[in-house]
Design brief:
alpha/beta, eight-stranded parallel β-barrel, 45% helix, binds 2-phosphoglycolic acid
């Protein structure tokens, strides 16, 4: 019922040549593997968006951005608007990735503004949520995730909320090689879906895709994506290697 969605977040990696080669390899490889049964997106750094979008033209691979600013235009030096992202071929944008929250210092209010701006600009936001290790150890996982989802979606009616994908990424699992167990991940995904049902309705909750992220690779993706409420993956490190990323896409079919 929910089409799986696998996205590769390149973070601050690659260069123009390597990025285009990687994008071409993934576009070519995923046609054979997924045949349109899985939504696939590549999320390169801003400066490579246009080149990567050109490299995947005529494939079913989409392009997304790692961040967006919430204003339409104006004197915001260094920032990028939703319209600019559309202009260079983006369909998706990450909002509130854990590195934006915990390294750059974005709070839920800013993340919420970015989600609104993305939807207003015709982009599909991927709202990233997840608890720190200390929060999990203190038994606060559901409270933290609940706050981030509620504040991230605040002010969106059901029609607009339907544009959102949620990515559950426990911060302790990102880039650490520590993956949540399939059951740990499934439990939080089910919790998020129930929360969306309470905030909106069962139909929207049943249709909303919730990706898992945090040290996903081709070896562990099958079991994770096999969980009933895990609808795909947001992949960091393993998305930088074509064969590894294609393996993850394959496990989503
Ligand atoms: P990782 O990153 O796969 O390298 O853990 C995931 C993410 O931050 O989106």
């Amino acid at each position: 019922m929910r089409k799986p969605f696998v996205a590769g977040n390149w973070k601050m990696n690659m260069d123009a040549h390597a990025g285009v080669e990687l994008a071409k390899a993934i576009a070519a490889g995923s046609v054979n593997i997924a045949g349109g049964q899985v939504d696939v997106a590549l999320i390169p750094p801003f400066v490579y968006l246009q080149a990567v979008a050109s490299a995947v033209t005529a494939s079913h691979v989409a392009v997304g951005a790692q961040d967006v600013y919430f204003q339409e235009k104006g004197a915001f030096t260094g920032e990028i608007s939703p319209a600019m992202l559309k202009d260079v071929g983006c369909a998706y944008v990450l909002c509130g990735h854990s590195e934006r929250r915990h390294v750059i210092g974005e709070d839920d209010a800013i993340v919420n503004k970015k989600v609104h701006a993305a939807i207003n600009g015709g982009l599909l936001p991927i709202l990233c949520v997840g608890e720190l290790q200390s929060e999990r150890e203190a038994g606060q996982t559901e409270a933290v995730v609940s706050t981030q989802v509620k504040k991230g979606l605040a002010g969106l009616d059901g029609e607009r909320a339907a544009a959102v994908t949620i990515a559950y990424e426990p911060v302790w699992a990102i880039g650490t090689g520590l993956t949540a167990t399939p059951q740990q991940a499934q439990d939080v995904h089910a919790f998020i879906r129930e929360l969306v049902a309470k905030l909106y309705d069962a139909e929207l909750a049943g249709a909303m895709r919730v990706q898992y992220g945090g040290s996903v690779n081709a070896a562990n993706s099958g079991e994770l994506l096999g969980q009933p409420d895990i609808d795909g993956a947001l992949v960091g490190g393993a998305s930088l290697k074509a064969q590894e990323f294609l393996g993850i896409i394959k496990s989503a079919v």
